[in-house]
């Protein structure tokens, strides 16, 4: 935005005071409508029973830290990427590796499966997001058909296809998010507003499907309008980097996981944070979060190698899962909610059900 | 393990390790004279070392203090050892908290992991050189390799390094034996944490550096405040909903989908991941003839659920065909395809949509209000992917508020509800489960399914011949 001329009554101090006054007013407006807490509304909901969640599959094959994974819409295939540049497509049900690609860069921090199941996208320290069409011929060299789509000025932290194979949404260490046309590589929209690296993003599942949320190192979670590129809502209650954001299944809320060892729930319609999922004994950051199908459970992968399962409504921790031997770096629930997959710096991925 | 070079792709700001503050606070409490962990003097070889604790005492303290069970206390304890706040006296290369009589000590704060400075290679070289001076051959194989590498790389500084090492060694000899042993243990522990032996990982490995320094504040210019003011003003004006209403909606969603969540209610006949039998997926495939009862029930939860499920959408289309009002859904689908399509196809799609749905006398003319129609037609002169948004939302709302509810009450829906199957739960014996695990079915490659769908779509498009407009209009008038 080009610098405007200084108005006669504007000084740095007066603007600062005005912005502080407005921020206070915003909090007042939000508080006016805050007539009940989540756990109060949840009192009427019945308590959860005991859970038996076990590792059902362990996927071994990466030679280094697993950084990211995504499910295919067929509910059984997954794509995963690691620090050594390898991207592997697995049939997690049989644990067979179906495709493998070696990227020309290390630290492939982002990968995504296309909605059609016919391609995967990935990127990392190469500052790009590339799309690899998959093939039925197992001997085909996938790198030959690689398509470079996104170009950022710094590392790619997350990517996601929209409702079709034709568009990709990316977030980057350069502080921006961007929407790209896959076929032409054209930049369709860019999203500026974060003051530091953007680490994660998630697309809204709602019927209008036009917004997404991003989280960054500036401790902010921003909700964006994909059409206009405007930031429509912003939440700044975390005390440290936000590593992961995920929409609630109805699209009316989203959860975030942060280095401050808490996960939080933000209500978009009430425009406020409504729950904090934390415990004194959880000291290390949450790296990735996802909801179960009904939204009752929130799964969080943490840097102390554990996975904590939270009761979203009552705010209590329901279960803690052990098994990984290093940080849990990525966690996603399968499209039909029958299982979730966790990827870790211990080189493995685990399917839990 | 490699020597860190300066080639860091311009990404040199370390991420904030917020956990360090909490860990430090915990460690301080653990060292409290009155309420901290029990510590005593212990003999190590021939020297008596003060303030030594056993692994099980540390675990018991953590479990008691944080009110957690032993497994969780083990995780916390091991993390404290991995980060170097506590170090083992025996088996010093394995950074775990053993739940037995193994001996541990608190690390001196000087050697605590800090955010601001990295352990330098120069310091590491001095440390290795010092140990080499004290006793030749004292270095492990990996340490010797590192030493050789450092010697090569820092050859120009080597005299300085050896001099420093000799100074430190001499100073060490002046100290009392117990103090010297303690200092040596501390320093050794520090370097195990920061230069981990091969095939072990360091807890201090945080991934890649961040690009933008999160500790640096954004320059507070006039523009910075102007932006905040505009944004906050807009935020204040935005309509928001009472918490009781929006939280109520969240609770309602959970309650509605409770029985459909495989983590909360068993999926029938069984969860494929648990029994290695994929019947559940077979029964719920995209175009099964007969869907399951649970699936049909889910279509009634919301119009969005119905449309999102291809089988549900297909059933809805059957209903619309009977009502001769398929054009609304067809328009919505075409608009979706345009919104999510390739940039190159915009104008062609826009033209087709105009001809099919919006032009006066169009074969599948949709009934939207005059104002929206006007705006849309004008926008189509210079089509962009969101040009149909207003019309699409209008049609969607129409279907959602009217057609959807009529569908749920229709014979089409009641029919599919009756036909839907409810599979009996599996009851596999252990032997059967073992068999299942050996015979997991590979499933169809999604590429093949995609190709099949594209073929079907092409066939359907070709089969949809020119629609008889007169008959269509007559049916509409009859219904009125």
TrEMBL record, chain A:
One family name in Pfam for this protein: WD40_Gbeta
WD repeats, residue ranges: 59-100, 149-190, 191-234, 235-276, 288-320, 321-353
Gene3D superfamilies: YVTN repeat-like/Quinoprotein amine dehydrogenase (2.130.10.10)
InterPro entries: G-protein_beta_1-5, WD40/YVTN_repeat-like_dom_sf, WD40_G-protein_beta-like, WD40_PAC1, WD40_repeat_CS, WD40_repeat_dom_sf, WD40_rpt
SMART domains: WD40
GO BP, sorted A to Z: signal transduction
Keywords noted in UniProt: Repeat, Transducer, WD repeat
Top-rank taxon: Eukaryota
Family: Belongs to the WD repeat G protein beta family.
Assembly and interaction partners: May interact with RGS9; this interaction stabilizes both proteins and increases RGS9 GTPase-activating protein (GAP) activity, hence accelerating the deactivation of D(2) dopamine receptor-mediated signaling.
Name of the protein in its database record: Guanine nucleotide-binding protein subunit beta-5a
TrEMBL record, chain B:
Residues covered by the RGS domain: 302-417
Protein name: Regulator of G-protein signaling 9a isoform X2
Gene3D superfamilies per the UniProt record, alphabetical: 1.10.1240.60, Regulator of G-protein Signalling 4, domain 2, Transducin (heterotrimeric G protein), gamma chain, Winged helix-like DNA-binding domain superfamily/Winged helix DNA-binding domain
Lineage, broadest ranks: Eukaryota, Metazoa, Chordata, Craniata, Vertebrata
GO biological process entries: G protein-coupled receptor signaling pathway; intracellular signal transduction; negative regulation of signal transduction; regulation of G protein-coupled receptor signaling pathway
Listed PROSITE patterns: DEP, RGS
GO cellular component assignments: cytoplasm; neuron projection; plasma membrane
InterPro entries: DEP_dom, G-protein_gamma-like_dom, GGL_sf, RGS, RGS6/7/9/11, RGS6/7/9/11_DHEX_sf, RGS_DHEX, RGS_sf
Record keywords: Signal transduction inhibitor
Organism: Chanos chanos
Gene: rgs9a
Any one GO MF annotation of this record: GTPase activator activity
Signal sequence, start to end: none
Domain DEP intervals: 33-108
């Amino acid at each position: 935005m080009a610098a405007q001329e200084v108005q006669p009554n504007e000084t740095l101090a007066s603007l600062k005071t005005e912005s502080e006054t407005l921020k206070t007013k915003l909090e007042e407006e939000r508080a006016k409508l805050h007539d009940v807490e989540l756990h109060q509304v949840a009192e009427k909901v019945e308590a959860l029973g005991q859970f038996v969640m076990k590792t059902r599959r362990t996927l071994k094959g990466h030679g280094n830290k697993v950084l990211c994974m995504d499910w295919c819409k067929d509910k059984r295939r997954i794509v995963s990427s690691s620090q050594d540049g390898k991207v592997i497509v697995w049939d997690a049900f049989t644990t067979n590796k179906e495709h493998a690609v070696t990227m020309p860069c290390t630290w492939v921090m982002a990968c995504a499966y296309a909605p059609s199941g016919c391609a995967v996208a990935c990127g990392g320290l190469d500052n790009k997001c590339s799309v690899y069409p998959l093939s039925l011929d197992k001997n085909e060299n996938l790198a030959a058909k690689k398509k470079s789509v996104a170009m950022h000025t710094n590392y790619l932290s997350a990517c996601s296809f929209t409702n079709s194979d034709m568009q990709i949404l990316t977030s980057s260490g350069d502080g921006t998010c961007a929407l790209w046309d896959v076929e032409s590589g054209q930049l369709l929209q860019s999203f500026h507003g974060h003051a530091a690296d953007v680490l994660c993003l998630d697309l809204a599942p709602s019927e209008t499907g036009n917004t997404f949320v991003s989280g960054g190192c500036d401790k902010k979670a921003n909700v964006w309008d994909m059409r206009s590129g405007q930031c429509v809502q912003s939440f700044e209650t975390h005390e440290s980097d936000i590593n992961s954001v995920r929409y609630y299944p109805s699209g009316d809320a989203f959860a975030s996981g942060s280095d401050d060892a808490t996960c939080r729930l933000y209500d978009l319609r009430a425009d406020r944070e409504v729950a904090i999922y934390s415990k004194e004994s959880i000291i290390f950051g949450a790296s990735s979060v996802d909801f179960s199908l009904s939204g009752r459970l929130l799964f969080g992968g943490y840097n102390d190698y554990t996975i904590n399962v939270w009761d979203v409504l009552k705010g209590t921790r329901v279960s803690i899962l052990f098994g990984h031997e290093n940080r849990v770096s990525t966690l996603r629930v399968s499209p039909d909610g029958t299982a979730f997959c966790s990827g870790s710096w211990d080189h493995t991925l685990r399917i839990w059900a | 393990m490699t020597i860190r070079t300066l080639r860091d792709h311009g990404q040199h700001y370390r991420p904030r390790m917020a956990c360090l503050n909490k860990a430090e606070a915990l460690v301080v409490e653990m060292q409290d004279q009155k309420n901290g962990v029990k510590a005593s003097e212990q003999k190590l070889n021939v020297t008596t070392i003060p303030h030594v604790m056993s692994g099980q005492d540390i675990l018991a303290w953590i479990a008691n203090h944080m009110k957690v069970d032993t497994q969780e206390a083990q995780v916390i304890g091991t993390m404290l050892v991995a980060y170097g706040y506590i170090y083992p006296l025996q088996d010093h290369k394995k950074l775990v908290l053993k739940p037995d009589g193994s001996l541990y000590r608190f690390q001196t704060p000087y050697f605590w992991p800090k955010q601001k400075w990295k352990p330098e290679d120069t310091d590491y070289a001095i440390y290795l050189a010092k140990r080499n001076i004290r006793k030749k051959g004292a270095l492990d194989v990996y340490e010797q390799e590192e030493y050789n590498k450092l010697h090569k790389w820092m050859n120009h500084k080597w005299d300085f390094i050896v001099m420093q090492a000799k100074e430190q060694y001499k100073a060490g000899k002046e100290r009392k034996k117990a103090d010297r042993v303690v200092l040596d243990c501390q320093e050794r522990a520090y370097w195990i944490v920061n230069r981990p032996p091969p095939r072990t990982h360091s807890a201090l490995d945080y991934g890649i550096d961040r690009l933008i320094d999160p500790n640096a504040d954004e320059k507070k210019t006039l523009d910075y405040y102007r932006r905040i003011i505009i944004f906050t003003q807009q935020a204040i004006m935005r309509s928001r909903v009472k918490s009781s209403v929006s939280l109520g909606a969240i609770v309602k969603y959970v309650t509605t989908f409770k029985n459909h969540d495989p983590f909360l209610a068993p999926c029938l006949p069984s969860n494929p991941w648990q029994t290695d039998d994929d019947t559940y997926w077979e029964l719920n495939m995209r175009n099964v003839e007969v869907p399951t009862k649970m699936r049909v029930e889910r279509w009634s939860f919301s119009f969005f659920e119905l449309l999102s499920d291809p089988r549900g959408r297909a059933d809805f289309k059957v209903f619309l065909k009977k009502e001769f009002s398929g054009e609304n859904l067809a328009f919505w689908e075409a608009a979706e395809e345009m919104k999510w399509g390739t940039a190159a196809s915009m104008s062609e799609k826009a033209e087709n949509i105009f001809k099919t749905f919006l032009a006066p006398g169009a074969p599948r003319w949709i009934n939207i209000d005059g104002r929206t129609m006007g705006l849309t037609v004008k926008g189509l002169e210079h089509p962009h992917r969101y040009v149909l948004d207003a019309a699409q939302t209008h049609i969607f709302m129409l279907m959602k508020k009217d057609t959807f509810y009529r569908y749920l009450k229709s014979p089409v829906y009641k029919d599919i509800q009756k036909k839907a199957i409810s599979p009996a739960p599996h009851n596999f014996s252990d032997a059967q489960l073992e068999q299942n695990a050996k015979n997991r079915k590979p499933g169809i490659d999604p590429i093949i399914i995609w190709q099949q769908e594209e073929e079907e779509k092409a066939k359907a498009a070709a089969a949809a011949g020119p629609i008889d407009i007169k008959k269509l209009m007559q049916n509409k008038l009859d219904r009125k």
